[in-house]
């Protein structure tokens, strides 16, 4: 099968910068680590080579070393998100009353929505609300943190075709501040990645969205031959491990790689197996968690 050379990476939003004053509140909600990641840029040629090996039937990549997949352990290690707790689910109400009441409760004012779809809230508007908070009261701090989390949900964890809007269905999950940390955000993020990978593997798909940072970091950890930064030059590992690639420079040689080049690297990955999978945490995982 010929590589899908037209598979493009959706434009990613800027890093979610935040005020250090709210660190303890972000820790309490489980979104502190993922807030610290910053900008990570992938490469559509590498993405296309990976997608060619994705099998929707088993939710795994077929590689020379076996069938491997992104698991919940990687979500924790790469994003630092909670994976225990209640499922991220619920009913969706697209009515204007629902949107306005929850927006006022969470953001303190009526929302700026997508006129073609009233269920989507503009992320730029949410960021402006966040940055205007005085942080001098408990409610102001909580409103700031809710804005920060909503932006992360729309731009990093559950991205869709829009790069500037996020669905209002997440508002209900953020209304009770004390309950935010009780949801399994990591599990929902992984499920979203699986779904977007399955969609991207279709022959007529030209773009991919979803939590691409999770996919890229997983691939670079599991298969260093694909990484833009040599392993020996990376900063020390930490949680979230994605910070090792934040703002990393891309060499001309790496940027000049084609889909065929990345496919060749994957096809012969057994030759660098001991190098690529030497970390015990990242030993090959055959189909399963």
Low-confidence stretches: 1-6, 8-15, 271-289
Helix proportion: 40-55%
Tell me which oligomeric state these chains represent: single chain
Q: Name the helix and strand elements from N-terminus to C-terminus, one letter apiece.
A: EHHHEEEHHEEHHEHHEHHHH
Report the major sheet: 3 strands, antiparallel
Arithmetic mean pLDDT: 83
How would you sum up the global shape?
A: globular
Counting DSSP H or I runs of 4 or more residues, the number of helices is: 13
Cross-sheet strand order for the largest sheet: 2-3-4
Number of strands: 8
Category from helices, strands and their pairing: mainly alpha
Can you walk through the features of this model?
With 289 residues, the protein is mainly alpha-helical. It is 40% helix and 8% strand. The chain has 13 helices and 8 strands. It has a 3-stranded antiparallel β-sheet, with no helix packed on it. Strands 5-6-7 form a 3-stranded antiparallel β-sheet. α3 crosses α12, α4 packs across α9 and α6 packs antiparallel against α7. It is globular, with a radius of gyration of 19 Å. The N terminus and C terminus are likely disordered.
